Amino acid sequence: MKAYMKLGAAALLSAMAVTACGCNKPATRPTGGNVTSIVINSSNGSPNSAGGSSSANASEPKDTTITADKTVKSGEMLTIKKGETLYINNGAELTVEGKIDCAKGGAIKIQSGGALLLNGEIKLDGDMELGGKLGIREKGAIEGKGTLKVLNLFSDIDCEGLCTAKIKAPKPVEKDGLTTVGGVLIVNKKYSVPEDYGDGLVIDEAYDKLLEMREDTGYPLALASGFRSYETQRELFEYYCSIDDYDSVVMYSAQPGHSEHQTGLAMDLGEVSEWYAETDEGAWLAANCHEYGFIIRYPADGTDKTGYDYEPWHVRYLGKSTAKLVRDSGLTLEEFLGVEAE
What we know:
By secondary structure, this protein is an alpha/beta fold. It folds into two domains: about 5-25 and about 175-335, Muramoyl-pentapeptide Carboxypeptidase, domain 2 (2-Layer Sandwich); about 35-140. About 20% of the residues lie in helices and about 25% in strands. It has a seven-stranded parallel beta sheet with strand order 2-3-6-9-12-15-18, with no helix packed on it. A hairpin with a 2-residue loop joins strand 20 and strand 21. The two termini are about 20 Å apart. About 40% of the residues are buried. Residues about 1-35, about 40-50 and about 50-55 have low confidence and may be disordered.
């Protein structure tokens, strides 16, 4: 909502004061240097199915299947050439302390029940298909011009490190009046929630993380607005339309059923003003909220993607790993999930 509307709507906003749960609070990346090259293609005409053993010097590309736990050690490089696929099967875990170089036209497929644990680097110019689990530890990094395709849930990724490769989200799923993408609930001008959705609370996990941010920083991070019911959002939207033209209102206020506040996952923090971004608290929030699982939902350069004006005070809770992935992508939530805003 616009700062200049704040005082005019004071009575309404006070009636919407958040009902928050009474929850208790609860290095350097690997660089280049001498590496041992591990070539994954086999020397015969059949795929190389191994608990990690590799054979070398085949002229034609071959697939490799990891069927038991294996480690690419520090100083080693696993090379996946054009036309080659590395499969990590159900029950197998590939730990990468060294490097993987996946060329354009190559692929890494983490099957359901399989896992890749990354402490080193992956140069991904091909494709990675995630049907299992992916752990990117603090010093781990996935970079390159390739694509990481998430087949199921974003919670299948535990990201503490860096992932700048393009991430392709699964298709939206509609169930019981809700739309999720990879398990992430999406609410915007196009996607809504039912009138009776929500229990009147900011969800416990999101509120706990707010308390944690306050404790860690000393900033008050005042909760200006948390959960809003369908009815409260309707009253607020109608009020704004009574004092401003409709085309302006829809850029800063959601219609009922289309507000993230009704999910219990969104909060307005600090000052409801664009000037908030220039305060020490607002600047800290923008730079660091992803470390606590939040994103700035409506960034300054994202109006044409989100459908809303810049709101440096409005945060959306996604969980720490997914928030970091969105942050590192430099995209709005709509772009990251591959959905339209309206």
